[in-house]
Design a protein that fits this description.
single chain; six-stranded parallel sheet; about 45% helix; Rossmann fold; alpha/beta; globular; 2 domains
């Protein structure tokens, strides 16, 4: 098949969605397909067999960036005679749209529970742009199939955009086990912990993410303040893009600033997984946080919330815990406390890796390929 994958950023550094598309493109090429990637930005080396098409955008404003990417992508795709066009950014029309971004209407509900504030936010240029593009993508005339990376994502597409449930295929993410696996601990653990002054006998709670507010860093810091009374040897390592200033102020106010390290971004994210003992991700909302799967592949038990699609592959007490109330530092602290005994963590380390082994890029690509073939049969 001649396949076009369309995403604004084709990158192994920027986020879970971007890494997913890079891995998917490589797997589809291995399967013998003619793979073309349409993107504005690329920071990966050229891969033999994958053709890259640069999509120009107008960078002066948020609205122009998004609309120009959608328009210019459509223009470049014209007359190319692709068997399948699979979009990961909000463009239309196409054959398949994979819900990688958060469903914006639900995001606004969880970010702004105050109705008046939400009303004001809905009229910002940024939100109006995304809401419009999202509405177009989900219209039945603009896609043949939707891929959701979790049952949560499927539920939101049905609830907010009336997508027929038989038009949505749930295909969980895949994780690169060559890069993310338990051997990273022997390769990078001592080096990374030494860099941040973390002692061998200290327990590291790891967070990896790009939106600190949405992903629950505040709840992590508040939960640590509750554990401080127990004088546990705990440190928190926070990796990812974001402004830490307000969170450092909170940590100082709660007298736990010496327990928190903000590490910034890295293109060797596996080094952070190697340094961790427990992966903590109390997100307000995420269709499927791929960092949870990456952490499990590296042998870390995961604590996350039921508003993360990745919670669907977590079994309480076996490979992690699912927190019911994402705003409750007390509930998070209780689950962290459950994982403090070393022997329990070591048992869950093995279970976490066994879970991750079921979700490989090749298995994911095989299911995606089957979906493509079914669409072609009905074209």
């Amino acid at each position: 098949m001649k396949i076009a994958l369309v995403i604004k950023d084709y990158s192994l550094k920027k986020g879970g969605l971007e890494r997913y598309v890079v891995n998917l493109s490589k797997e589809l090429e291995k399967m013998g397909h003619d793979v073309h990637v349409f993107a504005n930005f690329r920071d990966t080396p050229e891969y033999s067999g994958i053709t890259f098409h640069h999509v120009p955008i107008i960078k002066f404003s948020f609205i122009l960036k998004n609309f120009s990417f959608a328009v210019n992508s459509r223009h470049l795709l014209e007359d190319k005679d692709f068997d399948i066009i699979n979009g990961f950014s909000r463009i239309y029309p196409l054959d398949v749209y994979r819900i990688g971004h958060k469903v914006r209407r639900h995001l606004l509900n969880v970010q702004y529970p105050n109705k008046f504030k939400k009303f004001l936010k809905c009229f910002s240029i940024k939100h109006l742009t995304i809401l419009y593009l999202e509405e177009q993508v989900f219209k039945q005339k603009n896609h043949k199939k939707i891929i959701a990376n979790s049952e949560l994502g499927k539920k939101h597409a049905i609830y907010y955009h009336a997508v027929p449930k038989n038009n949505i295929e749930v295909i969980y993410n895949g994780v690169d086990l060559n890069k993310f696996n338990p051997t990273v601990r022997s390769l990078y653990r001592d080096e990374t912990r030494k860099k941040f002054g973390i002692k061998k006998n200290e327990i590291v709670l790891l967070f990896v993410g790009r939106n600190f507010k949405l992903k629950g860093v505040k709840t992590i810091i508040e939960s640590i303040s509750l554990l401080w009374e127990k004088k546990e040897k705990i440190r928190v390592l926070i990796a990812g893009k974001g402004n830490p200033s307000s969170f450092l102020k909170l940590a100082k106010k709660l007298n736990v600033e010496n327990k928190i390290f903000f590490a910034g971004e890295s293109n060797k994210i596996e080094k952070f997984y190697a340094a961790g003992d427990i992966f903590v991700f109390p997100t307000l909302y995420d269709p499927f946080a791929n960092v949870c799967l990456e952490a499990m592949a590296c042998g870390l038990p995961v604590i996350t919330t039921k508003m993360n699609g990745a919670s669907e592959i977590i079994k309480n007490g076996r490979n992690g815990y699912v927190v019911e109330d994402y705003t409750s530092p007390g509930e998070l602290a209780a689950r962290i406390t459950d994982l403090l005994p070393k022997d329990l963590r070591e048992n869950m380390n093995a279970c976490a890796f066994e879970t991750a082994k079921q979700y490989t890029p090749s298995n994911n690509a095989a299911r995606v390929e089957k979906l493509y073939e079914n669409i072609l049969k009905n074209k």
